[in-house]
Design goal:
alpha/beta; TIM Barrel; two-stranded antiparallel sheet; 14 strands
C-alpha cells in the first residue's frame, strides 16, 4: 500500500505510544512495513538525484566487479570517484574477494565518539583473553596461525578492528608478520590519537599493507593529519574511514587542503549506521531503514554524495568511496555466496531487538520527506479503524 505521510504519521504516533512488550498485529505490521518502504524510497530518490549530479561517478559492477560509469539502471556493488588505481585493496577484498575476516585483540579505546556502535558501552567490552586473538569468532594464539593457514582457506584480506590497536600496538607485530608471510592482504583501523611514528615503523616492518584513520574521531586533529602523511612514507596504502556526520563534513572541508596534501590514497565515507547504543545521539534526525536492516539518518549519505561531487569537480588526487548501506548489503550477499550459502542467503539484517517507532516521527513530520506516491488507505487500515 502507498500510505500517505499524514496517515503514516498518525499510525506511527500510535505505535510509538504502545508498551514496548506489546507486539504489532499482522495488519499493523503491514502498515509499519508500508511506512518503512515509503521512507526508504523517498531517501533513495534523493540519493539518485545527487548521484546524477556527480561528474565521472563510477562503480564496481555487481557482475564481476568491472569498473563502469554510473548508470541508475546498472546494479553496482559500490560507487566512487577518483583515480581507479587508488581504490582501496581492502575494499576490493571485502567486495570482490573471499570476504573480509576481522582480527580482534584490543578491547579498549581512547575516544568516545557519538557515532560509535559501542557508545556508552566502551568500559564494558570484554577482553579477548591474555595472549589470544579472535579470528572468525574463535580464539587463537599467534603460534596457532601456521595450523590455521594449513587447514583453512586463507582469506584474500583481513582487518584489525575492535577497538583501538595503538593502545597496545606492540602486541600486533608478530601476528601481522605471520599474515604477511602467508600472503594475506592486511589493513588496520585507528583513530590516530595514540599513534606515533615509532608505531607506524613497527607496522611497516611487520608488513602491514594498508592503514585507515578514523579522522572524525580526532575532529581532524592536525597531529593525526601529520601522522597520515608519516604513514604514507612507510605503508603502501593510507586512507581515511569515518562515518559521515555533519561535524566531520564541516571539519574536513575546513582542513581539506592540508588533508589532501598528506598524500593519502582514499577516503571511505561510511554511511552513519545507528544501533541501540548511538541512536540517542542522533535523536530528532530523519531516519530510514535500508532493506529493513541498517538504520541511518538521511543526511549521512547525502553529505557523502555532495562531497563526492566536489571531489570530482575539483579533481582531488584520491578516491572518495561511497561506503553506503547499499555497499554493505552487496558485501554481505557476496560474502555468503563466497562461503557457499544458498541463493539469497545473507547475514545482513536489523540490529534492534524492537523497532524504535518513535525515532521515525521526525522524518514523518519533516516536509522535506516526500513520499513518491500516496494513496488512501483501504478500509480496515485507516486511523480510527480497529486494526490488529
Amino acid at each position: 500500500m502507498n500510505i500517505s505521510r499524514k496517515d503514516a504519521l498518525a499510525w506511527f504516533q500510535f505505535f510509538a505510544a504502545l508498551p514496548e512488550e506489546e507486539p504489532l498485529g499482522p495488519r499493523q505490521q503491514e502498515i509499519a512495513s508500508a511506512v518503512f518502504s515509503q521512507l526508504e524510497l523517498a531517501a533513495e530518490s534523493r540519493f539518485t538525484r545527487l548521484q546524477a549530479e556527480i561528474p565521472g561517478l563510477k562503480g564496481l559492477a555487481a557482475d564481476g566487479g568491472k569498473i563502469l560509469p554510473w548508470d541508475p539502471a546498472v546494479p553496482f556493488r559500490t560507487l566512487f570517484v577518483g583515480p581507479e588505481d587508488r581504490f582501496p585493496a581492502g575494499c576490493r577484498s571485502c567486495l570482490l574477494g573471499t570476504g573480509l575476516s576481522a582480527v580482534r585483540k584490543t578491547n579498549r579505546c581512547d575516544a568516545a565518539c557519538p557515532f560509535c556502535y559501542d557508545f556508552g558501552q566502551l568500559d564494558r567490552i570484554p577482553p579477548i583473553g591474555e595472549g589470544l586473538w579472535e579470528i572468525g569468532g574463535t580464539r587463537y594464539r599467534e603460534e596457532d596461525l601456521p595450523l590455521l593457514f594449513a587447514l583453512s582457506r586463507k582469506p584474500t584480506g583481513i582487518a584489525y578492528v575492535y577497538l583501538e590497536p595503538f593502545m597496545e600496538i606492540e602486541k600486533y607485530e608478530g601476528v601481522i608478520r605471520r599474515f604477511h608471510e602467508a600472503g594475506v592482504y592486511q589493513h588496520l583501523y585507528t583513530n590516530g590519537l595514540h599513534a606515533s611514528e615509532a608505531g607506524l615503523d613497527l607496522l611497516a616492518r611487520a608488513g602491514l599493507d594498508e592503514i585507515r584513520f578514523n579522522l572524525g574521531a580526532s575532529h581532524t586533529s592536525d597531529r593525526v593529519i601529520q601522522l597520515m602523511a608519516a604513514a604514507k612514507q612507510r605503508i603502501p596504502r593510507v586512507g581515511i574511514e569515518t562515518p559521515m556526520t555533519r561535524e566531520f563534513y564541516r571539519e574536513f572541508l575546513a582542513k581539506k587542503d592540508r588533508i589532501l596534501a598528506s598524500g593519502i590514497d582514499f577516503m571511505n565515507c561510511a554511511e552513519l549506521h545507528l544501533n541501540e547504543n548511538n541512536l540517542p545521539n542522533y535523536w530528532g534526525e530523519s531516519l530510514y531503514f535500508f532493506r529493513m536492516g541498517y538504520l541511518s539518518p538521511v543526511f549521512s549519505r547525502e553529505l557523502t554524495l555532495r562531497l563526492m561531487k566536489q571531489a570530482a569537480e575539483e579533481q582531488w588526487p584520491l578516491v572518495l568511496h561511497d561506503c553506503s548501506n547499499h555497499t554493505k548489503f552487496a558485501r554481505d550477499i557476496h560474502q555468503k555466496t563466497a562461503e557457499g550459502g544458498w541463493f539469497g542467503q545473507s547475514s545482513y539484517g536489523c540490529e534492534f531487538s524492537s523497532v524504535p517507532y518513535e525515532a521515525f516521527l521526525p522524518a514523518l513530520e519533516d516536509p522535506d520527506t516526500v513520499f513518491l506516491r500516496e494513496e488512501e488507505l483501504p478500509a480496515g487500515y485507516r486511523p480510527g479503524d480497529i486494526v490488529l
